[in-house]
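User: Here's a protein and a ligand (magnesium ion). What would the complex look like?
Assistant: Let me lay out the input and then the predicted complex.
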Amino acid sequence: MSTPARVAGEAAVGEVLVTAEDLQRRVAELGEEISRDYAGRSLLLVGVLKGAVFFLSDLMRFIDIPVEVDFMAVASYGSATDSSGVVRILKDLDAAIEDRDVLIVEDIVDSGLTLQYLLRNLGSRNPRTLEVCALLTKPERRKVDLPTRYVGFEIPDRFVVGYGLDYAERHRNLPFVAALES
Ligand code: IMP
Ligand code: MG
């Protein structure tokens, strides 16, 4: 069977850009900041499968206001490392978000095209508020300007894996974020 995962086996995990300790510290800070900002309200986290699952589950444990979670899965047409902005919904939310305070939780904002689509799509469902929390952002790669209220780390223009981020479904399980060497 010829799967992309076999091709990924040829790419090596290189320099660590964000250590496990830095991830845990920053995720805790973000959780506390979000809890303060949404105090007195209840929050719906919308995780974008699959990459954000790891970040979201850690983040949620540092949120001490009432919080619920739902997931969306989207596929962006494009190559292994570049999204096209043409997005297809693979799995939609389980429940309506009208009048809810919604926080989209993303692993990484690269071109921003996937997030732009999600903001438009979820925005059209009339949530009370709609914001974004992204673990990583690559400012040099941005094609569209987007409101990202919470950001974990800005990283340089390198393809990264670990802590949920994959290359052809591999390396999500690394406890740190590292550059991929081709
Ligand atoms: P965008 O639409 O170009 O912003 O791409 C967003 C999606 O592409 C992310 O949710 C990731 O799934 C994927 N992606 C972008 N950059 C990387 C990376 O460096 N490593 C792994 N996945 C990435
Ligand atoms: Mg991906």
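Summary: The pocket of magnesium ion (ligand 2) is lined by residues 51, 166 (CB under 6 Å).
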